Amino acid sequence: MAAGRPQKSRTTTATIRDRLINVLASLARSARRLTLHLPERWPWSEDFTQLFSTVQAPPTL
Prior knowledge:
Largest sheet: 2 strands, antiparallel
Number of helices: 2
Protein name: Transposase DDE domain-containing protein
Organism: Streptomyces pseudovenezuelae
Strand order of the largest sheet: 1-2
Strand content: 15-25%
Order of helices and strands: HEEH
Distance between the termini: 42 Å
């Protein structure tokens, strides 16, 4: 690797699945509303929140 170049990382489908989708979480229902309880000190919580917001956003026309 050349000096001064930032190191690039590649995220594979398996990495995304392991870190963001396969999560130990619990789903609770109260008053017809679903709540997802994520682990308290989960290192990828910001990434999951961004993924969830992107998926739940209204479609752009």
